[in-house]
Amino acid sequence: VTENRSDLEDLHLYATPREQRFRRFASLEFEGQLYMTPYDFIQAVTNDEPKRAKKWRSLSKQELNQILMETPPVWKGSSKLFRNLNEKGVISYTEYLFLLCILTKPHAGFRIAFNMFDTDGNEMVDKKEFLVLQEIFRKKNEKRERKGDEEKRAMLRLQLYGYHTSTNSVLKREGEDLVPRSYWDTLRRSTSQALFSDLAERADDISSSMSDTTLLVHFFGKKGKAELNFEDFYRFMDNLQTEVLEIEFLSYSNGMNTISEEDFAHILLRYTNVENTSSYLENMRCRIPEEKGITFDEFRSFFQFLNNLEDFTIAMQMYNFASRSIGQDEFKRAVYVATGVKLSPHLVNTVFKIFDVDRDDQLSYKEFIGIMKDRLNRGFRGYKPIQRYTTFKSCVRKELYSR
């Protein structure tokens, strides 16, 4: 175990917020490179800070091989994969970024992602094609690197990628001044280059110098020779979204079949840049005095809708509602037209009671879409803890359950 890490803490000064978060939650180190366990990843996307002080535990080659030997094949995946693996898994920094991308993408985006990896168009993705991801994210990261001591930045690259990177660009330089907004945009733009010829060559070098991870073994087998089809890829991504939502839901439900409307509001607001969250919570308490509860199906359907927020925004513009308020019926209809997701009347009413700050039973673009766009950044920036207030009925319900 690396004690205190005092000699490496100043690397935080050279790290981006995403790198800082990965370093803060990662708990394993192998040959100088940091890794998250599946447990670490779940903690990173559902909590503000690690539950316990992290010390990077150094793995031996034998220990790493043992962990990878216990990795199930992709056809044995489930919505409890990360929870079942717990501490028995290793996730690299670029895989962390990739998994974060998936959490906020609509199901239609899964096909786009798969096709971007499938460079030869054979409806299968092999290990070499998937490793292009490593190089794409590394190159984007170099553009965002903070200036400073080159030695420190080299140490940081070693921690994140497991090897010292060169300063020669791999991606084409046309339009480099137009930095994509997100890692998803980077993946989409970079993988559209002519069959990744230069990136694929680099992937060969990476493959020979890097260690296998849980994700690579899960997708491509222990020998790395298996290929990934779209059905298995889709199921993995859907399971990941479901697992994270289940964990968030269960953390508030205390074993019950529902969470309170107030808890639902807490989960929504904790990922946004809203300054005065108490006003939203108080607004909802006054307007929903009788707690009915939000089921997991309602909870999941709402976040599936949020992952389609861009399409919903376009639909709103087509309805000519983008700059003015809409009622609950129009909202529900626009959600279904744009995303195919049906939201229950109670869920829509709850959303209105949370975000309709002027209490006119209408939602404006600023009141809802502007705030919810913040949530799509989940995991890519720091979290803002929200003070929890619990209704009397919710207290009673949880007290009864605890008995």
From TrEMBL:
Cellular compartment(s): Mitochondrion inner membrane; Mitochondrion intermembrane space
Q: Which SUPFAM superfamilies match?
A: EF-hand (SSF47473)
Has keyword Repeat? Answer: yes
Which InterPro entries does the UniProt entry name for this protein? EF-hand-dom_pair, EF_Hand_1_Ca_BS, EF_hand_dom, MICU1/2/3
> Which key words are in the record?
Calcium, Disulfide bond, Membrane, Metal-binding, Mitochondrion, Mitochondrion inner membrane, Repeat, Transit peptide
Question: What CDD domains does this protein's entry cite?
Answer: EFh_MICU3
Primary site of residence: mitochondrion
Q: Which GO terms describe its biological process?
A: calcium import into the mitochondrion; mitochondrial calcium ion homeostasis
In this protein, which residues make up the domain named EF-hand? 105-140, 343-378
Q: Which GO terms describe its molecular function?
A: calcium ion binding
Gene Ontology terms: cellular component: mitochondrial intermembrane space; uniplex complex
Q: What is this protein called?
A: EF-hand domain-containing protein
**Which source organism does the UniProt entry give?**
Gavia stellata (Red-throated diver)
